[in-house]
Amino acid sequence: MDHHDEKQPPPIRRSTGSATSGKRKSSSTEEREEEEEVWDYESLNKNLQQVQFILDRNRVLIQQVNQNHQSMLSQNMVNNISLIQEINSNISKVVALYSHLSNDFSSMVNLHNHNNN
């Protein structure tokens, strides 16, 4: 056991440091890579929470649009214009967040594959 193994391990330890290429990674390199993986999981979780918040908001807006439509009152129909605009804006935000999620997930998989090689 070398002096690198005596350090406190990071919260999530996936590897002993032996790579299939025969090279041995330093403990500090392993810790940085594992911290990056944890960060990616946190980023994924944060983005998923944002998506859920926006989808919940859209659910409320859609219910309001439906109620306004059913009322057949002219002012409620006018109010629906801004509600529908907000729904459309929120959909664009969800698309952007899903794009970011996809990129984060791909990066996380690539990092994981790289670490296992």
How much of the sequence lies in strands comes to under 5%
Helix content: over 70%
Overall average pLDDT: 75
Sheet with most strands: none
Structural class: mainly alpha
- Using DSSP, what is the number of strands? 0
Structure annotation, total helices:
2
- Shape from CA axes? rod-shaped
Cα gyration radius (Å)? 24 Å
Distance between the termini: 22 Å
Low-confidence stretches: 1-23
Taken in chain order, the helices and strands follow as HH
Task: Output the keywords.
mainly alpha, 117 residues, rod-shaped, single chain
Which helices and strands appear, and what pairs or packs with what?
Elements: H1 27-71, H2 74-115
Helix pairs in contact: 1-2
Would you give an account of this structure?
α1 (27-71) packs antiparallel against α2. This protein has two helices and no strands. It is mainly α and 117 residues long.
